[in-house]
Amino acid sequence: MYPQAAEKPDIREFTAEVTAIEDNTVQLSETYFYPASGGQPADRGTISGVTVEMVAKSDGSIIHHLRSEPELAVGDTVTGRIDDTFRVYCMRAHSASHTLYGAARTLFNELGYGGFEITPEKIRVDLSTEDAVDAADVVELERLTNQAIWDSRPVSWREVPVSEAQNNENIAFNTQTEEGVMTDQSAVRLVEIKGWDIAACGGTHVSNTIEIGPVTVLNRS
Fold this sequence. Notes:
By secondary structure, the protein is an alpha+beta fold.
């Protein structure tokens, strides 16, 4: 099951019931906090005024780690507020990585996807190819990525059966990450940039590439 945050990434405030408490951790009847996974960091924010330090998945549940022990009881109704600035940054960053991968598909042969990581300063995208990659390729990769952004391409997401995803060679996925087609799933979530890229992904995204803004490819290694 994919996080509700990924399905409705524009929600910033919600109410829910406390279903479990242990020390500084809280579980809720529903949550729109994104749990850290697949290279995307957890959302920031508060639950009833208490700072959320980390959000993680454990045995199918989403666990909220709070800065201090909450004065709450199971059954209480709480308000979750998600940090808008950081959520939007992650949405833009994640969609940027998909846009860059789409650009790389047009440049390189036998392209493989090894994952990515969002940090507060930059994004790392792990690609593999047998082609030699030089400085001119990096410039062209940046140009193509930004062209797709300025083309204002719609971004959408949906779930399909795992077998359908595995049989579609156009879909990028990495079976070693939580964003991949996992063996215990019956369906996989696809994120598609219209006419540009399609990948298995459980993260939060913008609805149009124009929301990403300009991208600079800093380096390669």
